[in-house]
Design goal:
The chain is of the alpha/beta class and 369 residues long. Helices cover 46% and strands 15% of the residues. The strands form 2 sheets. Strands 3-2-1-4-5-6-7 form a 7-stranded parallel β-sheet, with helices on both faces. A 6-stranded parallel β-sheet has the order 10-9-8-11-12-13, sandwiched between helices. Bound molecules: uridine-diphosphate-N-acetylglucosamine.
């Protein structure tokens, strides 16, 4: 059995890494049958600090194939991945394509594989924000509709899929592969010297990330978010590792953004540095998907600056609070949490570090022999 495992953008790497490990373990166990996999990087993210650093930190082999697509509009990027992936699959036909998450690479490779008659397994299926202005929501809905095997992180995702008419036999609730990586690498965060590097060794801080187009592509939006962060930084240090998409807009603000002593902007960080900062943060403010899940597992308070979340379990069970997109509300909620009024949470069902083993076991049950 030959599988292609697709990665493309930063949040894919921590999801694919444990799946590769579980495949390797199964390969060493001869009773699992003859398994081969190819790791294919579309090249959607290409900077060293958005891509390469993760391969060494997550102890992943370098990609066997790099399609080298780079940036473009939604259609350009998706189309170029499809053209190059189709060529590769036609010349090297796989038995299965495994895609993770909700990025353009996930969508592009799913459509291409299914049209070539190759079944697709989607890891992290069924998440829904019900907000079609998010490119990721379109990617999720289309990928799930086309996939043969849908591996979910939470029970609400199973229900979303069933409501869309996906037969129960295709849905497998397995837990969260991103959390497999978190548990495995948490002990290694002691190797990170990030706090010394940014001068916050014994200082409490708030950790921030923003990269959603709806928050950062518009100058006025990002400016009012930065103003809110400056307000928070008058009380506590604020650390903001900036995504390239966000940095390009901040750079264009020029003199329109003055900064503040307590607000520290850095470039994108590697996994261990970021995890180390997240673990010890007094509060995390974000519009990311995965960070809502990681903070829930770490028990760190998280304020999500969005109107909706495709990960409701982090709100109903975890430490996440959906604050909406009013910067004044963000400041109020941040001060509330920093006064010690924290929301307690628990770790969702099956977020136990073993999701990737369940996935590979299921795949082998179907294709292994
Ligand atoms: C993508 C995913 C998003 C994910 C995010 C995490 C889609 C639709 N979006 O958004 O789901 O949460 O990654 O990072 O797939 N850029 C660089 N260097 C890089 C990568 C990108 O400078 O290594 C620049 C690009 O030139 C582009 C911008 O960042 O201008 C956005 O990149 P893109 O891949 O389009 O989407 P993201 O916003 O990163």
């Amino acid at each position: 059995m030959k599988a292609i495992i697709v990665v493309g953008a930063r949040p894919n790497f921590m999801k694919a890494a444990p799946i590769l490990r579980a495949f390797d373990e199964a390969r060493n166990d001869r009773s699992s049958g003859d398994i081969e996999y190819v790791l294919l990087h579309t090249g959607q993210h290409y900077d060293d600090n958005m891509s390469k650093v993760f391969f060494s930190e997550l102890e992943m082999p370098p990609p066997d194939i790099d399609l080298g697509v780079g940036s473009g509009t939604q259609a350009e990027q998706t189309a170029l991945i499809m053209v190059r992936f189709e060529k590769y699959c036609s010349e090297n036909p796989p038995d299965l394509v495994v895609v993770v998450g909700d990025v353009n690479s996930t969508l592009a490779c799913s459509i291409t594989a299914v049209k070539l008659g190759v079944p697709v397994a989607h890891v992290e299926a069924g998440l829904r924000s019900y907000d079609r202005s998010m490119p990721e929501e379109i990617n999720r809905v289309v990928t799930d509709a086309l996939s043969e095997h849908l591996f979910t992180t939470s029970r609400d995702a199973d229900e979303n899929l069933k409501k869309e008419g996906i037969p129960s036999e295709k849905i497998h609730f397995v837990g969260n592969v991103m959390i497999d990586t978190l548990y495995r690498l948490l002990p290694k965060t002691s190797m990170s010297n990030i706090r010394a590097r940014i001068g916050i060794e014994n200082t409490p801080y708030v950790l921030v990330t923003f990269h959603r187009p709806s928050n950062v592509d518009d100058r006025e939006n990002i400016k009012s978010i930065l103003d809110a962060l400056v307000k928070i930084s008058e009380k506590i240090k604020v650390i903001f590792p900036v995504h390239p998409r966000t940095m390009s807009v901040i750079t264009r603000l020029g003199a329109g953004f003055k900064g503040a002593d307590g607000l520290k902007l850095t470039g994108p960080l590697g996994y261990l540095d970021f995890l180390s900062l997240m673990r010890d943060a007094s509060l995390v403010v974000t519009d990311s998907g995965g960070i809502q899940e990681e903070t829930t597992v770490l028990g760190v308070p998280c304020l999500t600056f969005r109107e909706n979340t495709e990960r409701p379990v982090t709100v109903t069970e975890g430490t996440n609070i959906l604050v909406g997109t009013d910067p004044r509300k963000l400041v109020d909620e941040a001060f509330f949490v920093l006064q010690g009024k924290k929301k307690n949470g628990r770790i969702p069902e099956l977020w136990d570090g073993k999701a990737s083993c369940r996935i590979v076991r299921k795949i082998l049950e179907i294709y292994g022999k």
